[in-house]
């Protein structure tokens, strides 16, 4: 999809998208636009409503925004139009920008339209959305200049579309090697370096916790390291480290899951968010240095699987007692965090993972759980999430929870064995491997990375984290 600017729609022939804020309650004033009059009896601009009209060779889509609207809702409304009204978007389309719109609202609208091209039917023979044609030209009608904003919106949506596909594709497609190849291809295209440690290299490096998780799978684990440095850099750059959980499928291991296993292809959604964020950060050429690690492995069941009560060695040199093989995500993250800190020494670190059902039990499907002892990071990352509709809320990291991961036989154990405070004890486990880093945050996104909405009949990816991480880094 390309975009171009037009100053008027008088001689335009095609579909006109007209976002409108809601008229006042009990208002009887008719909405007038381009010679059309819309009675308040049929349309007032109420949020989540839209009205179709045809006049003079044009098809108009009047899109209700309500009296006020947030970024996420606006993005969803435009995604809905792109999905439901695909038939009238096949030829010429112009988006009329209201005078009231600011940059963020233009970004949300354009990004939402492109997100509406996503189709969960990856293995169905279906016609592609017209917006995906490289020659399709979305015209932007405004008396202001929004070219930079529109280009950014398209880059955001493209990164999120990639992330949606990574999470929704089946585990016999998205293996650890698939993810490593994806990273290498995108690194070449967008401009970040990629190093992949396969099985033998990971053994040489001593990534024991990571290797333990993937040892029962026929799909070889891949420890993916990505490094982005902007082309134009004179002053000292801030250095941010990202770590994402890349478990391409989670059976639970020998502590096999008894419910919900069909959805466990989504257990790499944290890693997918990091992949998408790396694409977007490089595409936007943000003036920061970013090192990202995604340990990719499949937690399978086989005669070689690691056992409950095993004691394994981690990259940090600390021993880990395995209480539950289904608490595997924190093991690969532990090695990812340790490797990042020892070898790259970033100033800021954020890890993101679909880590615990406990976070879902606490927050439902409304927000991710945030853990950090750094007040500045806590404030900035919550502000970034609020701005783009990917919310977070903090939970404590009090030392009183240390006893949950204390082991008699090893330096630490991977699961408390208790039915309470699971998200917190998991976060304390990860904190153990951060070497008391003073600017680290852990995001448990189990409830928001994969779920139900209007855009598919089954649970599917949300791309949560891509925009959040990028916005946070952008605002550091």
TrEMBL record:
GO terms for biological process: proteolysis. It holds the Pfam family Peptidase_M17. InterPro entries: Leucine_aapep/pepB (IPR011356), Macro_dom-like (IPR043472), Peptidase_M17_C (IPR000819). Keywords: Aminopeptidase, Hydrolase, Manganese, Protease. CDD domains: Peptidase_M17 (cd00433). GO terms for cellular component: cytoplasm. One of its GO terms (molecular function) is manganese ion binding. Residues 165-469 form the Cytosol aminopeptidase domain. Belongs to the peptidase M17 family. This is Leucyl aminopeptidase family protein. It comes from Flavobacterium muglaense.
């Amino acid at each position: 999809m390309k975009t171009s600017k037009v100053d008027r729609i008088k001689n335009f022939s095609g579909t006109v998208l007209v976002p409108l804020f809601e008229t006042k309650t009990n208002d009887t004033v008719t909405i007038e636009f381009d010679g059309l009059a819309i009675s308040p009896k049929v349309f007032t601009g109420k949020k989540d409503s839209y009205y179709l009209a045809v006049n003079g060779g044009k098809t108009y889509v009047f899109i209700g925004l309500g009296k006020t609207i947030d970024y996420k809702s606006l993005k969803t409304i435009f995604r809905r139009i792109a999905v439901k009204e695909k038939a009238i978007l096949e030829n010429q389309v112009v988006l009329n920008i209201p005078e009231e719109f600011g940059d963020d609202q233009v970004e949300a609208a354009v990004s939402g339209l492109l997100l509406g091209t996503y189709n969960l039917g990856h293995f169905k023979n279906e016609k592609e959305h017209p917006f995906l044609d490289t020659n399709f030209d979305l015209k932007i009608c405004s008396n202001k200049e929004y070219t930079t904003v529109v280009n950014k919106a398209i880059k955001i949506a493209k990164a999120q579309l990639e992330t949606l596909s990574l999470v929704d594709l089946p585990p016999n497609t998205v293996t650890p090697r698939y993810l490593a190849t994806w990273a290498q291809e995108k690194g070449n295209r967008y401009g970040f370096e990629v190093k992949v440690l396969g099985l033998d290299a990971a053994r040489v490096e001593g990534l024991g916790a990571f290797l333990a998780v993937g040892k029962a799978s026929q799909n070889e684990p891949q420890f993916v390291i990505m490094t982005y440095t902007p082309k134009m850099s004179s002053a000292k750059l801030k250095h941010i480290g990202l770590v994402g959980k890349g478990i391409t499928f989670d059976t639970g291991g020998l502590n096999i899951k008894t419910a919900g296993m069909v959805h466990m292809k989504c257990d790499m959604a944290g890693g997918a968010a990091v992949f998408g964020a790396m694409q977007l950060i490089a595409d936007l050429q943000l003036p920061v240095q970013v090192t990202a690690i995604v340990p990719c492995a499949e937690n399978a069941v086989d005669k070689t699987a690691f056992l409950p009560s095993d004691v394994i060695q981690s990259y940090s040199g600390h021993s880990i007692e395995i209480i539950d093989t289904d608490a595997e995500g924190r093991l690969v993250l532990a090695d990812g965090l340790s490797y990042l800190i020892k070898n790259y020494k970033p100033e800021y670190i954020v890890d993101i993972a679909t880590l615990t059902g406990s976070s879902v039990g606490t927050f439902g499907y409304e927000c991710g759980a945030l853990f950090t002892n750094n007040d500045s990071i806590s404030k900035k990352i919550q502000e970034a999430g609020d701005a783009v509709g990917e919310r977070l809320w903090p939970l404590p990291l009090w030392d009183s929870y240390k006893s949950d991961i204390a082991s008699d036989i090893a330096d630490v154990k991977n699961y408390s064995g208790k039915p309470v405070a699971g998200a917190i004890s998991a976060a304390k486990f990860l904190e153990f491997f951060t070497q008391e880093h003073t600017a680290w945050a852990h995001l448990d996104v189990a409830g928001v990375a994969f779920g139900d909405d209007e855009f598919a009949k089954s649970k599917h990816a949300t791309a949560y984290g891509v925009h959040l991480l990028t916005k946070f880094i952008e605002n550091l």
